[in-house]
Amino acid sequence: MRLFLVRHGQTEANLSGVFCGMTDVALTETGIHQARQVAHCLSAVTFSQATSSTLRRARHTAEIILADHSLSASIDAQLNEMHFGAWEMRHHHDLQHEDAQAWSAWLADWQQASPTGGETFSAFAARIENVVQQLLIQKSKDNRLLVTHQGVLGLLLARLLAMPPSAMWHFHFEQGTYSVVEIQHGFTTLRTFNSRTDWQPEIQE
Fold first, then answer.
1. Which of 35, 65, 132, 138 could cross-link with 9 by S-S, CB 3.0 to 4.6 Å?
2. Three-state secondary structure string covering 133-194
């Protein structure tokens, strides 16, 4: 199976640098343009399946990418970004003072701590691990599209490559790009990362 990984386009939350997990924000005009760029790059790809998170920014990105394809994306809540609870739409500069204890705990051990009222990292990692294990047992040779979020994609790729969850920070998925992994017999190969060029299978094979 060839898996095309796409991060949603830009949002106002991205521009503001605030925590945005389950807050259902829209794409900016730049974000829409970024999705169109990816659509152009992937126009020659025939997808057998496409999936996005339930959140509008991912769904809209997927809709734009698939506009000229005879396929629409299904939605999967497992692909939703981590829920930051009371930290949603807040900047870390403010949290240092307004929620100092929880913020200090997060800095000390983010894999064990959790945002106030939010999802624990272990719970987030567990649901992404479920997606990973489902992908690894696929025997299809088709192309599949996943449109989701930075945290999800970083963790997903780290685990597909048999790396620990903390390795998620090594993979920054740029908006307006696509990445490709191939999964065969439970083994994952990273074929391209943050590409802005047209996908041409005859060259990539």
1. 35
2. HHHHCCCCCCEEEEEECHHHHHHHHHHHCCCCHHHHHHCCCCCCCEEEEEEECCEEEEEEEE
